[in-house]
Amino acid sequence: MRSRLYILSAAICLFLTGCDLGTLQVERPTPRPAPTEPENPLFDPSVDCSSPRVDPGPHYVRRLTNEEYVNTVGDVLGVDIADLRARLPGDSYVAGFKNTAIGLSVSGRRIEQYAHIAGEVAERLDPDALGERASCTLGDSACERAFLRDLGLQLFRRPMTDAEVERFARLFRVVESEGDGFERAARLVVEAMVQSPQFLYRLEARHPEARLPRRTFDASQFEHSADGARTKKLDLQPGRYRISVDAALAPGAKAASLSLDFGSRQVERWPVEAIVSSPYTAGFEVGEEQGGRQVVALTADGEVAIDGVELVGPFSSSLDLSGPDVTDGVRLVTGYVMASRLSYFIWHSAPDKVLLEAAAAGELQTADQIAAQAERMLEDRRARRALRSYLDEWLRLDFLDTIERDEAAFPEFSRALVEAMKAETYRLFEAIIWEERADLLSVFTAQKTWTTADLAKLYGFEPVEGEAEYDLSEIDERQGLLTHASILALTSTNESTSPVKRGLYVRTQFMCQPVAPPPGDASSDAPEVAPDASTRERLAQHTEDPNCAYCHKMMDPVGFGFEHYGPMGAFRTHEPNGAQVDASGRLETDDDPVEFYGAPELGQILHDSDAVETCMVQNVYQYAIGRPPGPADVCDLRAVRERFTDEGRTYGELVLGVVTSDAFRYTRTPATKEAP
């Protein structure tokens, strides 16, 4: 988490200093010394990892991100809703990524849009996508329930409970009462399911071993009397119980009400205007003197069809976290929960049939079983789609969608060119990961690229039709990720380059290193800067000021190495005012500063950097577990990095290290005690 707070600190610093446009003024006689770069505390080598104790860190409920939501609907139902995505409120960056659990909040507007989109999904649905049971006949209860269980398994990523099946089955009766057919009922079920909590959230049961005593009864099990009462005799043990009722107004009937009585006590009364699927009642007690044969009575004052009653109890255990001998327990994540963890990490979508079958067969328990599934999934096209989404967030490529450039100064700028910039970066990672299966950090030193004709012109290459591969071994100025127009345009302003932004970007995105926040007595007053000064000269006035140097020392010298590349990423030897570019740079470290000239040389430094290697691991690990790493993750991160390093630093080994880590395979479970 600490490394992700660095970005916020740096942003505050840049705001207060005016970045390229001003300097920091502080009332004090002597400058504050610039801090040295700390070791990444998440990879602290002094931490003892020999203990067999497992601590997976905290776990949070996670809403599907917009990306996951669109992908899941498309993959499971075959309905493309990419055009509807803009209706949803955007997911926000929290601690560096959009899938951070604590940032996945839900607003009223989001809920409203989920409902609207669900209707669109139902309308666009091809009935053939529902499988062989899409041809059921309304009234065929067995076929309807089999259809629900098949669909629910895919959308809820686990088998439906009996209670869930009964509740969704009521929709068939609604459609049947309106005289419509099974296809309409199936669409209505889909519409309900894709806006249900079971679909929208990745819900992981915290007590899979706990089974509440639960009994269900349908209408045929109740005795009917002439006054409309339905009664059921039950054998109940002493304890506390709760009841839920599913009922509906009979076709053509007017509003009615339903009362629930247990013994001589009325537990609940509901108005019935259409459908009632009640929450559980607050509860009622069966004492020692009442144990034995009891009567549950449902009485209707009108025509009410009762679909079922669910009785839960007696409750024999409760959570007790107050005792001194009670600590957080840990359990292994297996089955359907593990299937979802794998699929939403590697695919950003729902588990496929193979994963669900493996979950049902108990084949997602060992590290080897999990790794085997992960290897299979990495070869699927969905893994490439997910990688692009990850790159959008890690590298902030999605910000390119909103950049603008002055048309007179940059006539080559277009949305198509921006898309080509992003595509070049995607293509480089895909080639290294899947085609070459090479060292992931070789993205910084790659000597080939793929561009469209528009981007080739920007680079000064010979343009060809469509996408073309270019050998860069003889083109010194265009090698590796740091010379991609996507990164260079992203870290510039609309008018000029920005060594501050570019240096900050390298520090935060690639090295997970801090940039010191401004002192509390900082002022944003900016001094006069010579109008004809070059970028380096202008920023030199900032860094030579001892007060401003406190903030800019870690960024500017790194950013100067990019000065050969203009705001669109085109190579240049002179600035717009005619000044010759000086691309010498310096990377401050705990030891001696590392000098370099130009972005390609910096790329080689990053390729060889321990800080970049640990940052790569940290980012992918955080993305998988959905929260910033903390002290509990130090040993996990060390193990993942060791595997990553020992196995050639490939993306595949990084993923396998993460999915077999403790944080991915385990979860905390509060201990339980028997109730007195």
UniProtKB/TrEMBL annotation:
Residue span, DUF1587 domain: 62-125
Domain DUF1595: 143-204
Pfam family, one: PSD3
InterPro entries xref list: DUF1585, DUF1587, DUF1588, DUF1592, DUF1595
Residues covered by the DUF1585 domain: 595-664
Chain segments carrying region Disordered: 27-49, 515-541
Sequence ranges assigned to domain DUF1588 in this UniProt record: 478-575
Sequence ranges assigned to domain DUF1592 in this UniProt record: 334-460
Entry protein name: DUF1592 domain-containing protein
Originating organism: Persicimonas caeni
